Amino acid sequence: MTGSKRKSVLAACCAVLAGTLAACGSGGGASSSGRTDTLSVGLIAEPASLDFTTTDGAAIPQAVLGSVYEGLVRLDQQGRIQPLLAERYERSDDGRVYTFHLRNGVKFSNGADFTADDAVFSIDRVKKDWKLKIARQMDVVDKAEKTDDHTLKVTLSRPSNGWLFSMTERVGAMFSRTGVSDLANHPVGTGPFTLAERRRGEHIVLDRNPGYWGTGPQLSKVTLKYFKDAGAMNNAMLTNAVDVLGTVQAPETLSRFSDTSRFRTIEGSSTGKVVLAMNNTREPFTDKRVRQAVRYAIDHKALVATTRSGHGKLIGTMASPTDPWYEDLAGRYPYDPAKAKQLLREAGAAGKTLRLRPPNLPYAVSAAQVVKSQLDQVGLKVEIEPLEFPARWLSEVFTKGDYDLSVIAHVEPRDLWTFADSGYYFHYGNPEYGTLLKEGDSGKPEDEAARYREAARLLSDDAAADWLYLMPNLMVADKGLAGLPVNQVGEGFELAGVRWTGK
């Protein structure tokens, strides 16, 4: 995927907290709360709006992508691209033309038919009307055109191995030409659910779509309940006020759900990379030796043990195990405080004061505290200033770049591009890195992984950031639930297959 083709950081932040869900139990009967065809999910990060075309944040697609909105293609649990609203597709030999054959009989929730006109409209709208950086994923599209009512042809300006993957995410969502007047409050899609109610600060309610084109969900209603803190959410789970916890905020609290007659804890894979961001355009991080010193100064194993009770995988670069080019680079910078002190002395940075500005989210604040302690020990003075998330963190860190260090989880898959855009909040600008990504995206599909693997190694060696750990997809659910996806592979929360089977 090229350096200009992927999502922004706020696509990173909320989904780790809101979570995708894990597969659970079997048996026969209702939930412990007595529900038989409704579901209540406890989450922390509430979406600021329901319009992901103008408002950033992964909590928005988490709530509506795959449930209200669908795309031409989707990801399965192994991260493979599968047809969805397109029943099949072909790619031309030169890699520039995709032909999608659309399903018949698909309707939007407003009653309008889904046709190739809507697909053209949706793709063109990303290029013309979307307000976010993620819209640049469509820059490679030269034109989208209707061949007939159920055939779409998309011509790219150059071959791109990553474009089809981007269509599995929010930019690939299909919109009704007559249903975009109030996306913030009234989303209109083809999905298995429709929006029934949204009450700010409390919940979002989704009802089963009676006109859904595919196999209808067994659940008649899903309520996404938003909590101010993890303690309140955990208590709701214990008292049957919710049936599923989103990603567990503090793994040490799992002992509260040890009653296996009621609960099941699932630990699946994730794309949630917890990144210690370093502002590459601000001293002292303009000096590679200082960035390297930070990486040597952090005992990642101890950090994961302290903040996550050992639930976290060390990765060493901006890649997760579901990426085809993934390799374990955690050993690139082993814990070596003496080496860190030496590099800081050589760079003249010993004793420097740094502002660490994480979002006020539990995982980020707890990691920041450990980072501060370990950097203090090698001679850096770190001041922690948690920022309200999303508004203040977005304004101060992401938009203005007013920070030295920050900690945040990037959950978007295949997001090497974030370091190729010098305007992105990392402000990393190595031309060699960007060239490797372009070669991987535009070259032969069989060469893509090799080029991206080389780029990931360069990123790690250059210490463009520090990768604290990869979050697991750690869930707690009522034992009587089945059909919840184990792994977090994309942006949406897949609800259509969830069902009660008892305990």
Summary, kept brief:
This protein has about 500 residues and is of the alpha+beta class. The protein contains 12 helices and 18 strands. Helices cover about 25% and strands about 20% of the residues.
| Assembly classification | single chain
Total count of strands = 18
- Regarding CATH, which class of the domain at 270-472? Alpha Beta
Look at the structure and name the CATH superfamily of the domain at 270-472. Dipeptide-binding Protein, Domain 3
Q: What is the helix/strand order?
A: HEHEEEEHEEHEEEHEEHHHEHEHEHHEEE
The Rg value, from CA coordinates, equals 22 Å
**Please, how many helices?**
12
Q: Which strand order do you get reading across the main beta sheet?
A: 8-9-10-1-11-16-12-15
Structural class by SSE content: alpha+beta
Major sheet size, sense and barrel closure: 8 strands, mixed
